[in-house]
């Protein structure tokens, strides 16, 4: 099994991430969570790694706040887009681009970080756990890991409520896969077990798209995307709804020692 490279799908992938209503929900939930855990740092300038960050949506937002960011991605096309956007930004951004797999990042060359982002990456990796364990070596004591992963439990539930029972019986293996459907979704309980094993203290748990993907085709006349976004933010942290998120966002803090 090989990890996914999005060179051939860079434009479509970037558009699907943030150029749609579901992308807006994703961005809003993640940014709220990040702001919550970064507030205690005040004006302190942090060293941040965006591992598998594509064109650097959050890299650019964090660098605009004055933080030092390293953006790593396996896709040269994604990094080319990031470079163009960074150059076009009216404010200079302290972002270093690293082309290569996140598994190649190492302590000697790249040092340690106060915050590591790994968003919508591990579900494309053949060995997610080992990749994350490598990233933890780059995390400073008391540093934060922001991990968003494609949720196997929600993938199954969505298929069930859609009546796609054969798809579930086949364990999601079909002859013709949608190219942007993650190949290695993770169950929430498994990721929680990993955080416990690594002694990461969970600071945030949020479901991303706990409502959007389950909306009925027939909606009331007064329905609005803004109302949907507000409800997504409101219910995304409710424990009963977190496991329904198409993606789940965990932020864990490394032990001090």
From TrEMBL:
User: Which residues bind S-adenosyl-L-methionine per the record?
Assistant: 26, 52-53, 73, 119
Q: Which domain of life is it from?
A: Bacteria
Q: Which GO terms describe its biological process?
A: methylation
**EC number of this enzyme:** 2.1.1.-
**Residue ranges of every copy of the Methyltransferase type domain listed in the record:** 49-146
Q: Name one GO molecular function term.
A: methyltransferase activity
According to UniProt, the reaction catalysed is: 5-carboxymethoxyuridine(34) in tRNA + S-adenosyl-L-methionine = 5-methoxycarbonylmethoxyuridine(34) in tRNA + S-adenosyl-L-homocysteine
Alphabetically ordered keywords of this record = Methyltransferase, S-adenosyl-L-methionine, Transferase, tRNA processing
SUPFAM superfamilies assigned: S-adenosyl-L-methionine-dependent methyltransferases
**Which family is annotated?**
Belongs to the class I-like SAM-binding methyltransferase superfamily. CmoM family.
Free-text function comment from the UniProt entry: Catalyzes the methylation of 5-carboxymethoxyuridine (cmo5U) to form 5-methoxycarbonylmethoxyuridine (mcmo5U) at position 34 in tRNAs.
Name the record gives this protein: tRNA 5-carboxymethoxyuridine methyltransferase
Organism listed in the record = Shewanella sedimentimangrovi
């Amino acid at each position: 099994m090989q990890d996914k490279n999005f060179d051939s799908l860079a434009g479509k992938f970037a558009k699907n991430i943030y150029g749609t209503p579901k992308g807006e929900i994703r961005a809003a939930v993640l940014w709220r969570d990040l702001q919550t855990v970064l507030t205690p740092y005040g004006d302190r300038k942090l060293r941040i790694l965006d591992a598998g960050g594509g064109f650097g949506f959050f890299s650019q937002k964090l660098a605009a706040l004055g933080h030092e960011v390293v953006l790593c991605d396996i896709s040269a096309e994604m990094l080319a887009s990031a470079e163009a956007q960074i150059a076009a930004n009216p404010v200079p951004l302290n972002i270093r681009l690293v082309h290569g797999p996140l598994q190649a990042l190492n302590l000697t060359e790249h040092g340690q970080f106060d915050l590591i982002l790994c968003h919508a990456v591990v579900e494309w990796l053949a060995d997610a756990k080992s990749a994350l364990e490598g990233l933890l070596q780059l995390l400073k004591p008391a540093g934060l890991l922001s991990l968003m992963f494609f949720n196997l439990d929600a993938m199954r539930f969505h298929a069930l409520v859609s009546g796609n029972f054969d798809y579930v019986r086949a364990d999601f293996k079909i002859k013709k896969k949608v190219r942007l459907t993650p190949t290695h979704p993770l169950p929430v309980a498994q990721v929680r077990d990993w955080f416990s094993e690594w002694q990461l203290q969970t600071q945030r748990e949020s479901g991303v798209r706990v409502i959007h993907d389950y909306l009925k085709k027939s909606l009331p006349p007064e329905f609005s995307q803004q109302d949907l976004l507000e409800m997504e933010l409101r219910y995304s942290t409710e424990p009963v709804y977190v496991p329904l998120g198409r993606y789940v966002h965990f932020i864990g803090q490394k032990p001090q020692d």
